[in-house]
Amino acid sequence: MKPDIPEGYQFTRKVLAYVTHDELLLVFQQPDFPSAGIQVPAGTIEDDESPLDAIKREVTEETGLTDFSVCSKLGIYYYDMTEYRKEIQERHVYHIELKAPAPREWRHYETNGGKSIEQPIAFDFFWTSLKNPVELTAGQADMLSKLVQ
């Protein structure tokens, strides 16, 4: 159920991807914005797309990977971004599995980051243990327990 949105707050629909390979979870840092913390691939659902289409697009745009499958939708939850900005996010979380191995670490530049992006954004990707992952920022680990049950 959609929460009440406080006056002056933005409501945004998002997708989050828990990309796995074997017992590993894909995460990244933004070298130009270290205060953004460690994250998983995620992004905004466009007005004309479904959450499923959005997750496929976002994983490809942010990681550069194309050989993956959407295993399942883990659920939807709401996250209050007040610590960062006046926004309530509806987050659709998916489990994505790579079909082929990826490098241990790599840098990818997102060039299609929406209206507010003027230049490519660097993402430094690396793998962390799924059972004992690094700490994710802004509540992004809220549904991770569904993968390790």
| Main sheet record | 7 strands, mixed
Number of helices: 1
Helix % is under 10%
- The CATH architecture can be named as Alpha-Beta Complex
Strand content bin: 35-45%
How many separate domains? 1
Average predicted local confidence, pLDDT: 94
Uncertain segments of ≥5 residues (pLDDT<50)? none
Q: Using the coordinates above, name the CATH class.
A: Alpha Beta
Give the SSE order as H and E letters: EEEHEEEE
Distance between the termini: 25 Å
CATH topology: Nucleoside Triphosphate Pyrophosphohydrolase
What does the overall shape look like?
globular
| Number of E strands | 7
Structural class of the helix and strand makeup?
A: mainly beta
State Rg: 15 Å
| CATH superfamily placement | Nucleoside Triphosphate Pyrophosphohydrolase
Give an overview of the whole structure:
The protein has 149 residues and is mostly beta strands. It has one domain: Nucleoside Triphosphate Pyrophosphohydrolase, CATH 3.90.79.10. The protein has one helix and seven strands. Strands 1, 2, 3, 4, 5, 6 and 7 form a seven-stranded mixed beta sheet that branches. A hairpin with a 6-residue loop joins strand 4 and strand 5.
Summarize this structure briefly:
The chain has 149 residues and is mostly beta strands.
From the structure above, extract its key features.
7 strands; mainly beta; globular; 149 residues; Nucleoside Triphosphate Pyrophosphohydrolase; 1 helix; seven-stranded mixed β-sheet
